[in-house]
Design brief:
Elements (H helix, E strand, L loop, with lengths): L20 E9 L3 H11 L3 E2 L14 H24 L15 H65 L5 H15 L5 E8 L3 H11 L5 E6 L4 E2 L6 E2 L1 E8 L2 H13 L3 E3 L5 H57 L3 E2 L5 E9 L3 H14 L7 E5 L16 H10 L10 H16 L2 H16 L1 H5 L5 H8 L1 H18 L15 E2 L14 E2 L18 H34 L3 H32 L5 H10 L14 H20 L1 H13 L10 H10 L10 H25 L2 H25 L4 H39 L19 H5 L1
Antiparallel strand pairs: 1-10, 1-11, 2-10, 3-7, 3-8, 4-7, 5-6, 9-10, 12-13
GO molecular function: ATPase binding; proton-transporting ATPase activity, rotational mechanism
Pfam families: V_ATPase_I
Membrane topology: Multi-pass membrane protein
Length: 819
């Protein structure tokens, strides 16, 4: 209890129990409220309660200020979009200079937004005009070429006809010629034309639709434009064709105009006269040069403005977010009836009391308040939030536990044990010191580049791996350790700790994989003897070893979980859970599987040939039968009978007494409405963790059914959970066999061809298979199985996980929330 009542600043970090919490009330004069909340945000050790939960956001005191901050945040988001669009990146860290006045910042942001918006509008108009002139110039060039070639062709044809007619001597020719001339003059038709550009992908459909709409009474000519153009309307880059359409009549013209509009064709008018066309090209080129100069000057000014914004963007953004969070917190405070002070309530760690009081005193001094803030601790029956102070090493392990459920206030935290057991169980399934070294190299890269990578935006998978770099570090170190025990380096054994204890029966070793080996030296000092590799007894031996080892590890971890339930019961002063949960559970589990673990160890030590399956099965079916050759130690039969009886007795021991005792306890406490006040911490400790059946409506049937479910779950779970730990054996075997297959069937097979190309291909396939299957998929598989063993098999023995996290008001978390 002494540790739980410690005071002062920053006591040593204790992960086994969450920090002692207290509900505090702070009465703040209204003139110092802003600075008080700001200083508490810098401190980050107080979680405010919302005392205005019944009010809508618009009914709260500081709704106007929050609206103002929201408007500034909108302007900053607009700036951010413009910066990203222009390829600027805001400074990684805000440069904190002089304190920024929020009112001045609001005016400045408004001016910058107006200036930037105006520049964008003007720039878009200029760019649209520029793109239109580019297209106009292209139309003048292409159509000018068409008109020039058409005029040359017509002139040449006319001369040819005149020269042909000069040689005709017929008398009728002049008469017919005059008649035709008179007819042509009376029936002469004026042709109109339209020019423009149409997207190339729509050009064929455009031509087809015009032909059908006018029934073929048009002449259309298209010419492709070599470069990609920016469309003046949409602003998108696209390939286009210049077209010219000759038509007759207004109806045909109207139809063509509608088709041009439907296909997004931009139309431009040009003169028929070639001289005027040349003059227009000159004018357009001059306008383009002027527009280009204007646009370039505008872009330089725009770029300078964005650079100025980018230099101060993070500082402005942080200021606005701080301002908004302060007023949001102030809206959670209750306004006193005198309207001269605000009342705040919230949770804080006990050790932070002095720091909070110092912050309140500083705020009162800095705001020149005549009255200081009042800080007092409240008595409550509410369950406090859970707060573990973690660092970058312990944080990912705590997150693994919190993903299952946040610890109840001050119950034993599995995160302490997870730091060792999680990477170790992973390594049991992943044991290969070659693969472990590969994981270690990747992890060391993350750790060495920690500062650089933490400030960069990583991909989802990379960011997840980087966040768990210290988990992977321990996983890789334990994998190297278990790999040395299994004596596997990419499935290849090495004589690292001395020579093998076995030799072949003959010089050729032809019987090594069939008949076996002969032991000639002392046992291999550490891990598996390399001589087992490749023999006929390798798989049966490893299966037996790893299966028994899995049971031993599983029973040990489940016993640890039950022992932690004892410490929880003692800590919360719940003697019922000690006598009617911890003791019968320990008896039941160890009467069965604790005894099995003992038999495994005795069999290993004595070298007995006893059948453990037979012993365990007939221990229940025929407990009085003679054991014969399966006897491992004297009086074994009597011990087994006693253990079976204890296991049978422990089931009703768990089931029956606790509900009746709780009922009796409830009847004794009935009518006692008032209890004497205790000290703050003791009051919190007892009230927060007292059994919920104490003063609430007591339903005996509900309590009994709950206890029945709990008992059945534990009895069946003892068997299923022990069997579940056999996944350690299964995954270890799968990893070893996959590694062996890749080595023998890919690398050695490629080596045997004595061909360099095949060898290179084999090495590449081996590397990709090792990385893809063994270092990625197998790592993920072993990680998930280790996670399941901790969440289900270990934590369900003691961990309730129905608490809620401590989320203090802190400016330090603003960056994380923004990301």
């Amino acid at each position: 209890m002494g540790d739980r009542r410690r005071r002062g600043c920053c006591p040593p970090m204790d992960l086994l129990r969450s920090e002692s919490m207290q509900l505090v009330q702070v009465i703040i004069p209204i003139e110092s409220a802003y600075l008080t909340v700001s200083y508490l945000g810098d401190l980050g050790l107080l979680q405010f309660k919302d005392l205005n939960a019944g009010k809508s956001p618009f009914q709260r005191t500081y709704a106007t200020q929050i609206k103002k901050c929201g408007e500034m945040a909108r302007k900053l988001n607009f700036f951010k979009e413009q910066l990203l669009k222009a390829g600027f990146s805001a400074s990684a860290k805000p440069v904190m200079g002089n304190k920024i006045d929020v009112d001045d910042l609001e005016i400045k942001l408004g001016e910058l937004e107006a200036e930037l918006t105006e520049m964008n509008v003007n720039g878009e108009k200029l760019q649209q005009s520029y793109n239109e002139l580019i297209e106009y110039k292209l139309v003048l060039h292409k159509d000018g070429e068409f008109f020039t070639s058409a005029q040359r062709s017509a002139t040449a044809r006319q001369r040819e006809m005149e020269s042909h007619q000069a040689f005709e001597e017929s008398i009728e020719t002049p008469l017919l010629k005059d008649q035709d001339a008179l007819t042509d003059q009376s029936k002469q038709v004026k042709l109109g034309f339209l020019t423009g550009l149409v997207p190339r992908e729509k050009s064929m459909a455009f031509e087809r639709i015009i032909f059908r709409a006018t029934r073929g009474n048009v002449f259309l000519k298209q010419a492709p434009v070599d470069e990609t153009l920016i469309d003046p309307v949409s602003g998108e880059k696209m390939e286009k064709n210049v077209f010219v359409v000759f038509y007759s009549g207004e109806r045909a013209k109207n139809k063509i105009l509608k088709i041009c509009e439907a296909f997004g064709a931009n139309r431009y008018s040009i003169a028929e006269d070639l001289g005027k066309q040349a003059q227009m090209i000159t004018e357009v080129s001059g306008k383009l040069a002027e527009l280009k100069t204007t646009i370039d000057a505008g872009l330089i000014h725009h770029e300078n403005l964005l650079r100025t914004i980018s230099d101060q963007f993070e500082q402005w953004n942080l200021t606005v977010r701080k301002e908004k969070s302060i007023y949001h917190t102030l809206n959670m405070l209750s306004l006193d009836v005198t309207k001269k002070c605000l009342v705040a309530e919230g949770w804080s760690p006990v050790f932070a009391s002095k720091q909070i009081q110092d912050a309140l005193h500083r705020a009162a001094c800095d705001s020149n308040s005549q009255v200081g803030s009042i800080f007092q601790v409240l008595h409550t029956k509410e369950s406090p939030p859970t707060y573990f102070r973690t660092n970058k090493f312990t944080s990912p392990f705590q997150e693994i536990v919190d993903a299952y459920g946040v610890a109840k206030y001050q119950e034993a935290n599995p995160g302490v044990f997870t730091i060792v057991t999680f990477p170790f169980l992973f390594a049991v399934m992943f044991g290969d010191w070659g693969h472990g070294i590969c994981l270690l190299i990747v992890t060391l890269f993350f750790i060495v580049k920690e500062k650089k990578l933490s400030s960069q935006k990583l991909g989802d998978i990379t960011e997840m791996a980087f966040g768990g770099r210290y988990v992977i570090l321990l996983m890789s170190l334990f994998s190297i350790y278990t790999g040395l025990i299994y004596n596997e380096f990419f499935s290849v054994p090495f004589e690292l700790f001395g020579p093998t204890a076995y030799v072949c029966r003959d010089l050729s070793c032809r019987d090594a994989s069939t008949i076996g080996l002969i032991k000639v030296r002392d046992t291999y000092p550490f891990g598996l003897d390399p001589a087992w590799h490749g023999t006929r007894s390798e798989l049966p031996f490893l299966n037996s070893l790893k299966m028994k080892m899995s049971i031993l590890l599983g029973v040990a971890q489940m016993n640890l979980g039950i022992i932690l339930s004892y410490f929880n019961a003692k800590f919360f002063r719940n003697s019922l859970n000690v006598w009617f949960q911890f003791i019968p559970q320990m008896i039941f589990l160890n009467s069965l599987f604790g005894y099995l673990s003992l038999l495994i160890i005795v069999k290993w030590c004595t070298g007995s040939q006893a059948d453990l399956y037979h012993i365990l099965i007939y221990m229940f079916l025929s407990p009085t039968d003679d054991l014969g050759e399966n006897q491992l130690f004297p009086h074994q039969k009597m011990v087994q009978i006693v253990l079976v009886l204890l296991a049978l007795v422990s089931v009703p021991w768990m089931l029956l007494p606790k509900p009746f005792l709780l009922k009796n306890q409830h009847e004794r406490h009935q009518g006692q409405s008032y209890t004497p006040l205790q000290s703050t911490e003791e009051s919190l400790q007892v009230e927060a963790n007292h059994d919920s059946h104490g003063h609430e409506e007591f339903e005996f049937s509900e309590v009994f059914v709950h206890q029945l479910i709990h008992t059945i779950e534990f009895v069946l779970g003892a068997v299923s959970n022990t069997a579940s730990y056999l996944r350690l054996w299964a995954l270890s075997l799968a990893h070893s066999e996959l590694s062996s297959v890749f080595y023998e069937k890919v690398l050695l097979l490629a080596w045997g061809f004595n061909n360099v190309i095949i060898l290179i291909v084999g090495i590449i396939v081996f590397i990709f298979a090792t990385v893809g299957v063994l270092l990625v998929m197998e790592t993920l598989s072993a990680f998930l199985h280790a996670l399941r063993l901790h969440w289900v098999e270990f934590q369900n023995k003691f961990y309730e996980g129905d608490g809620y996290k401590f989320y203090p008001f802190s400016f330090a978390s603003l960056n994380d929330e923004n990301e």
